[in-house]
Specification:
Elements: E1 3-5, E2 12-14, E3 21-24, H1 25-44, E4 54-57, E5 63-66, H2 69-75, H3 81-96, H4 101-120, H5 125-146, E6 148-149, H6 155-166, H7 175-189, E7 191-193, E8 196-198, E9 204-210, E10 218-220, E11 223-225, E12 237-246, H8 266-289, E13 294-297, H9 303-311, E14 315-317, H10 322-332, E15 336-337, E16 349-359, E17 362-368, E18 376-382, H11 385-408, E19 410-413, H12 417-430, H13 437-448, H14 450-458, H15 463-475, E20 481-484, E21 489-492, H16 493-496, E22 499-501, H17 502-520, E23 524-527
Parallel strand pairs: 9-18, 12-13, 12-15, 13-14
Antiparallel strand pairs: 1-2, 3-23, 4-5, 6-19, 7-8, 10-18, 11-17, 12-16, 16-17, 19-22, 20-21
Helix pairs in contact: 1-3, 1-4, 2-3, 3-4, 3-17, 4-13, 4-17, 5-12, 5-13, 5-17, 6-7, 6-11, 7-11, 8-9, 12-13, 12-15, 14-15
C-alpha cells in the first residue's frame, strides 16, 4: 500500500489496493538474489562426474531421479519470480545446446552472489551491470581464443564430447557404448546444405523400453514404430521391403451431408454390403498395383481392408503418428501419399528389413537397414523405468553436445579449465579500467571460478587448495588445466579426453550474465495476486514477497 499524506486534510491516498506487498531498493535486490542463490544451490551438488542425483516426488507420488539441471528445475515448480528466471536460463541452455544446464544456473547464481557483495559496498546496480556486460563480451573472446576446431571426421573427439556429457549421470557405466551410438546416429543424419552442415535433432528418435541394461541400447539405421502389425495373417518379417506411406483412411468415408439410405429388402442390403466390399477391394487393389509389400497408414483401416491386405501378404501398420511418418519418409526415401489413386511405384521407399519384435511385452515394428537414412532411431534400454528415463536424458544431452560442437565447429577442454582461463583473462582485463567497473569485472572473474570450485567440493576435495593449484597451472601457461576429480590433481584435461563444445560455455555465460543483469536492475517488487485482505499468506516471514516462502 502506498500512502501519501495530503497537504491539507491529512487523508491518505491509496494508490495500490489493500494487501499489496511492496519491496523497494536494496531490499528488492537482496530478496531476488536470495531466491536465485537458493535455486543455484539446489542444482550445484549435481555438477561434475562426482555430482549427486536428486529425487523429485510430485503430489501424485510420481518419482523422477535425475542429475540433469533443467529437469530438476522444471520439476521443482518454483514460485518466486527471480527463481523462475533461473529456470529460464537452464531452459534456454537446454534448447540451444542440450547440455550444460547446471553450469548455466550455477554461474547465474554466483554472479548474483558476487553482485550482492558489491551492493553492500554501495556500488550502484547500473555500474555492476555495465561491468558485467564488459566482462561478458571479453569472456566470449577469451573462450574463442582457447577453442580448437573440430569436424565430423574427428570421430574420436566427438565420442569424447559425448562421454564427457554423460559423465556423472546414471548412464556413465555404459558411456563408451552410448557415445559410439550417439556419434554414429549424428553422422548418419547430418546433411550438407549449401556447403553448411545441418543436423536436425528431431531426425534422431529415441524410443524408451525398460528391461535389459543400458548396454543393450541399440541404434537402428531406420525407424522404430510403436505399433503392431494390424492383422495376424500378415507377415511379421519382410526382407527387401518396398514401403508405401499413406495419409488416407482405408475405410468407407462417411458423407459430409446427412444422407439416408432406405433399404426395403434383404437383397438390397446384401447389394449395399457387396458394394462397400467392392470399394474396399478396389482400394487394396490400387495399393497392390504399386508393388509395395509394406504399408504404413496414418489413418484407420477397415477390418475388411485388413483382410484383403493380409491375403495379398502386405505387412501393414495403422494410425502411425504424423511425426513417425515424416521420419519414415526421411529414412526410406518414400513419399507420403494422401490419395490412394495416386500411389505409384515411384512413391515407394526401401529398407533391408522390416520386422515386428516384442520388446518389454509390447509389439513394435522395426524398419532397419535403410540405405543412407536421414532419420534414425535409438532403442533406449535400462533395468527399471527410472533408469531408462535417466539413460534417455543422458543420450539427449550427449546428442545436443555433439551437434553443438559440429554446428560451431569448435571445442574446449572441460573440467573447469575454460572457466579458469576466462577468470585469469578477466583479471588482467580489469586492470585496464580505473573506475568502479573494475570491481564488477573482477567479481565476474571470481564468479567464473565457481565451476572448478564446485567440481572440487562435489568430489570431497578442498576447494581452496584446488583453486590455488588451478590458478598456478594457468599462470604457468597451461590453458587446458582442469580438475581431475578422481585423483584430486590438476591435470591437462585435453590429454585426459575431457572435451566440451565451445557453444556450451558461450551460451552458459551469455544467458547467465544476461539473467543476472536483468535481476540486478529490479529495484521495486510489487506483488498483489493471491493475497487475502489480511495481507500476507500464512507461514510467510515478514518482508518476504509472495512465492519466496514456497522455496
Amino acid at each position: 500500500m502506498m500512502n501519501n499524506q495530503m497537504q491539507g486534510g491529512g487523508q491518505p491516498i491509496l494508490v495500490l489496493p489493500e494487501g499489496t506487498l511492496r519491496t523497494l531498493g536494496k531490499g528488492a535486490q537482496y530478496t531476488n538474489i536470495a531466491a536465485a542463490k537458493a535455486v543455484a544451490d539446489a542444482v550445484r551438488t549435481t555438477l561434475g562426474p562426482k555430482g549427486m542425483d536428486k529425487m523429485l516426488v510430485d503430489n501424485m507420488g510420481d518419482i523422477v531421479i535425475t542429475n540433469d539441471g533443467v529437469t530438476i528445475l522444471e520439476e521443482m515448480q518454483l514460485e518466486h519470480p527471480a527463481a523462475k528466471m533461473l529456470v529460464e536460463v537452464a531452459k534456454t541452455q537446454n534448447e540451444e545446446v542440450g547440455d550444460g544446464t547446471t553450469t548455466a544456473a550455477v554461474i547465474a547464481g554466483e554472479l548474483l552472489k558476487k553482485a550482492e557483495e558489491l551492493l553492500e559496498q554501495n556500488i550502484h546496480p547500473t555500474v555492476i551491470t555495465k561491468g558485467y556486460k564488459l566482462a561478458r563480451e571479453k569472456a566470449l573472446k577469451i573462450l574463442e581464443s582457447i577453442s580448437e576446431k573440430v569436424t565430423s571426421d574427428d570421430v574420436e573427439i566427438l565420442k569424447k564430447i559425448a562421454t564427457t556429457s554423460m559423465t556423472g549421470k546414471s548412464a556413465e557405466r555404459a558411456s563408451e557404448h552410448l557415445s559410439k551410438i550417439t556419434v554414429d546416429a549424428i553422422r548418419t543424419v547430418m546433411e550438407q546444405v549449401d556447403g553448411k552442415m545441418e543436423i536436425d535433432k528431431e531426425s534422431i528418435k529415441r524410443e524408451k523400453k525398460q528391461g535389459g541394461s543400458a548396454e543393450d541400447t541399440e541404434l537402428i539405421k531406420g525407424v522404430i514404430i510403436d505399433k503392431e502389425v494390424v492383422h495376424p495373417g500378415m507377415p511379421k518379417k519382410v526382407k527387401y521391403a518396398k514401403i508405401a506411406l499413406l495419409d488416407a483412411a482405408l475405410e468407407i468415408e462417411k458423407t459430409e451431408t446427412d444422407a439416408q439410405i432406405q433399404i426395403t429388402s434383404p437383397n438390397q442390403l446384401q447389394g449395399y454390403l457387396d458394394q462397400e466390399e467392392k470399394i474396399l477391394r478396389d482400394m487394396v487393389e490400387k495399393i497392390v498395383s504399386s508393388d509395395c509389400n509394406v504399408l504404413f497408414c496414418q489413418k484407420g483401416i477397415d477390418d475388411v481392408a485388413q483382410h484383403f491386405l493380409a491375403k495379398k501378404g502386405i505387412m501393414t501398420a495403422r494410425r502411425v503418428k504424423k511425426s513417425d511418418m515424416e521420419k519414415l519418409s526421411k529414412a526410406t526415401g518414400a513419399r507420403i501419399v494422401s490419395n490412394i489413386s495416386d500411389l505409384s511405384v515411384n512413391d515407394l521407399g526401401s529398407a533391408g528389413l522390416v520386422e515386428e519384435r516384442k520388446i518389454a511385452g509390447e509389439q513394435m515394428v522395426f524398419v532397419r537397414e535403410c540405405k543412407n537414412p536421414k532419420a534414425v532411431s535409438i532403442l533406449v534400454r535400462g533395468s527399471t523405468e527410472h533408469v531408462v528415463d535417466e539413460v534417455d536424458r543422458a543420450i539427449e544431452d550427449a546428442v545436443g553436445a555433439v551437434i553443438s560442437a559440429l554446428e560451431i565447429g569448435k571445442v574446449v577442454a572441460g573440467g573447469g579449465s575454460p572457466e579458469e582461463a576466462v577468470a585469469k583473462g578477466l583479471k588482467e582485463f580489469a586492470q585496464s579500467f580505473s573506475g568502479r567497473e573494475q570491481l564488477a569485472i573482477l567479481s565476474f572473474a571470481e564468479a567464473m571460478e565457481i565451476i572448478p570450485r564446485t567440481l572440487a567440493e562435489n568430489a570431497g576435495l578442498d576447494p581452496i587448495d584446488i583453486l590455488v593449484e588451478i590458478r598456478n597451472a594457468h599462470d604457468s601457461g597451461l590453458k587446458t588445466a582442469g580438475v581431475n576429480v578422481y585423483t584430486g590433481k590438476i591435470v591437462d584435461m585435453k590429454e585426459l579426453g575431457v572435451i566440451e563444445p565451445l557453444k556450451i560455455k558461450t551460451q552458459a555465460i551469455n544467458s547467465a550474465s544476461e539473467a543476472a543483469e536483468m535481476i540486478l536492475r529490479i529495484d521495486d517488487i510489487i506483488s498483489a495476486g493471491k493475497l487475502d485482505k489480511g495481507g500476507m499468506p500464512a507461514g510467510m516471514p515478514p518482508g518476504m514477497p509472495p512465492g519466496m516462502g514456497g522455496f
